[in-house]
Design goal:
Elements: E1 2-8, H1 15-26, E2 32-38, H2 45-51, E3 55-60, E4 74-75, H3 77-82, E5 87-90, E6 96-99, H4 101-117, E7 124-127, H5 131-143, E8 147-151, E9 158-160, H6 166-171, E10 174-177, E11 203-206, H7 215-222, E12 226-228, H8 231-246
Parallel strand pairs: 1-2, 1-3, 4-6, 7-8, 7-10, 8-9, 10-11, 11-12
Antiparallel strand pairs: 3-5, 5-6
Helix pairs in contact: 4-5, 4-8
């Protein structure tokens, strides 16, 4: 039995386990299973691998996406660009390679969305400067889409939310929320922006997928802006992980 799983802490709920268990059933993949492995300390990873010789691949979630890197033998270009790992491929001989499928999931869904809309050029405001923001930045760099990062506090390279104006949102019409604001169980929260200044020229992409329409997206839709939630990206990164493990 080929075993796959998720490491992180805590693992109170898991999209990955449900997704892959349903995928295996739906596609008749009978030689594979997916399990959760709570690791409060990433130093426990070698012990886990020693006790689970059938492991072929792992997903990595908070708080280990960066801490896991020293335990790996090689980093794929995607992980090097982002500086974080959310997929590990375990090859014969014990070689451990880290990837970042968030990068792939975001890039492919953004390209598909812009293509459907006929948008050939744009610029982006990236809301948030955490791990998800790094994956978005790497994808936009590769797509040669200019961007400006917005966070709670301004810095030499980052604007604060208070500095976002209607003029800025017109110059950077693609707004990408990489923060957890709006996520269940706090769907009432949203990034603090001058939403009344949005127009039909704006596009709002939210990495949040639960709920399907966050306050961020609802406020954009109310002004006629295009909207896109994070569900397709989530599915895309999961399928990319499976592709990596089977390659």
């Amino acid at each position: 039995m080929n075993l796959y799983g998720l490491i992180g802490y805590p693992l109170t709920h898991s999209f990955s386990k449900r997704y892959f268990t349903e995928k295996f059933s739906r596609e008749g993949i009978r030689d594979s299973a997916y399990e959760l492995f709570e690791l409060p300390d990433i130093a426990a990873l070698p012990g886990l691998l020693a006790t689970q010789p059938n492991l072929r691949g792992l997903n990595v979630t908070i708080p280990h996406k960066q801490a896991v890197i020293p335990f790996l033998d090689h980093l794929d270009e995607s992980a090097r660009k982002v500086g974080a790992v959310n997929v590990i491929k375990l090859a014969a001989g014990g070689k451990k390679t880290g990837y970042n499928s968030d990068y792939y999931g975001f890039r492919t869904t953004l390209v598909a969305w812009l293509g459907r809309l006929g948008v050939t050029e744009t610029a982006a405001l990236i809301l948030g400067n955490g791990g998800a923001s790094r994956a978005v930045r790497a994808a936009l760099d590769d797509l040669r889409i200019p961007y400006q990062v917005v966070a709670r506090e301004a810095s030499a390279t980052t604007l604060s939310y208070q500095q976002v104006t209607g003029e800025l949102m017109a110059a950077f019409p693609l707004l990408i929320n990489t923060t957890p604001l709006g996520t269940h169980p706090h769907p009432e929260t949203f990034p603090l922006l001058p939403y009344a200044r949005l127009t039909t020229a704006n596009l709002l992409y939210d990495l949040v997928y639960n709920p399907a329409e966050t306050q961020f997206l609802a406020k954009g839709a109310a002004r006629g802006a295009g909207t896109h939630n994070g569900l397709a990206m989530l599915h895309g990164q999961a399928e990319k992980a499976w592709e990596i493990w089977q390659d």
